[in-house]
């Protein structure tokens, strides 16, 4: 069964360091999402791609976060510099298209701890 | 903008007992509704969704939910729970028109006691 892949699964870093997370969506899925899930809360959308284009990045802290999907397939989310408040689970999801009826499939997530 | 409120942060029940997890939403326009489950240290898995038609929706693992437009609710139910149902459950909403942006509730932690 096709799955969304994410790496690393766990990342521990110190404040002010740079971190990067990678996501490989299900083959053929045009839409890719990055969510942040703070402990005890529901996921919150950070950025949405349609192929290689950003559709929604209104909640992405652009002073320190960046995301790219250069060839419209896999994607990288970067934080530089990391802050204590960035500790969270970062989830990647994909769907066939951005039509709202389509199911989003989630990866296992990357748990980030900033010390 | 749409929003979701999950009325219980934690729900403890005994094995084989029935359970209801409550979800209310707020939106000025029509929405689609979803329930997702998250097992420890894993991503989210879709349990069920309401798009249109019958207001009673059946999902995986014996779960079902009922859409009530007048009460803006989408409560999740299971008649008999198992230890394996222990997980975090999230209700989510998205607008029918526009980009597919899921807005999640805070989650309900379901704990099954033997």
Give a written overview of the molecule:
The complex is a heterodimer of chains A (115) and B (114). In chain A, 0% of the residues lie in helices and 48% in strands. Chain A is built from no helices and 11 strands. In chain A, strands 2, 4, 5, 6, 9, 10 and 11 form a 7-stranded mixed sheet that branches. The mean pLDDT of chain A is 93. Chain B is globular, with a radius of gyration of 14 Å. The N and C termini of chain B lie far apart (41 Å). Chain B is built from no helices and 12 strands. Chain B has strands at residues 3-6, 10-14, 19-21, 23-26, 31-38, 44-50, 56-58, 64-68, 73-78, 87-95, 103-104, 108-113. In chain B, strands 2, 5, 6, 10, 11 and 12 form a 6-stranded mixed sheet that branches. In chain B, strands 3-9-8-7 form a 4-stranded antiparallel sheet, with no helix packed on it.
Which terms would index this structure?
heterodimer, A: mainly beta, 0% helix, B: 114 residues, mainly beta, six-stranded mixed β-sheet, four-stranded antiparallel β-sheet, 12 strands, 54% strand
Topology:
The complex is a heterodimer of chains A (115) and B (114).
Chain A: E1 5-7, E2 10-13, E3 19-24, E4 31-37, E5 44-50, E6 53-56, E7 65-68, E8 75-79, E9 88-95, E10 105-106, E11 110-114
Parallel strand pairs in A: 2-11
Antiparallel strand pairs in A: 1-3, 3-8, 4-5, 4-9, 5-6, 7-8, 9-10, 9-11
Chain B: E1 3-6, E2 10-14, E3 19-21, E4 23-26, E5 31-38, E6 44-50, E7 56-58, E8 64-68, E9 73-78, E10 87-95, E11 103-104, E12 108-113
Parallel strand pairs in B: 2-12
Antiparallel strand pairs in B: 1-4, 3-9, 5-6, 5-10, 7-8, 8-9, 10-11, 10-12
């Amino acid at each position: 069964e096709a799955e969304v892949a994410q790496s690393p699964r766990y990342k521990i870093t110190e404040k002010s360091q740079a971190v990067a997370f990678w996501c490989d969506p299900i083959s053929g899925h045009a839409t890719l999402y990055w969510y942040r899930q703070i402990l005890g809360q529901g996921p919150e959308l950070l950025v949405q791609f349609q192929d290689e284009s950003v559709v929604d990045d209104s909640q992405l802290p652009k002073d320190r976060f960046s995301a790219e999907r250069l060839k419209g397939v896999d994607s990288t989310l970067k934080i530089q510099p990391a802050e204590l408040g960035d500790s969270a689970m970062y989830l990647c999801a994909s769907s066939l298209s951005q039509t709202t009826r389509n199911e989003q499939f989630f990866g296992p997530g990357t748990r980030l701890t900033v010390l | 903008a749409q929003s979701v409120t999950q009325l219980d942060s934690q729900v403890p029940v005994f094995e084989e007992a029935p359970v209801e997890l409550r979800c209310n939403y707020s939106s000025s326009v029509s929405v689609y509704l979803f329930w997702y489950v998250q097992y420890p240290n894993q991503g989210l898995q879709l349990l069920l969704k309401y798009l249109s038609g019958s207001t009673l929706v059946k999902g995986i693992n014996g779960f079902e939910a009922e859409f009530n437009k007048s009460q803006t609710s989408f409560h999740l139910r299971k008649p008999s729970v198992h230890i394996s149902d222990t997980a975090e459950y999230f209700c989510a909403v998205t607008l029918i028109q526009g980009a597919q942006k899921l807005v999640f509730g805070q989650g309900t932690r379901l704990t099954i006691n033997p």
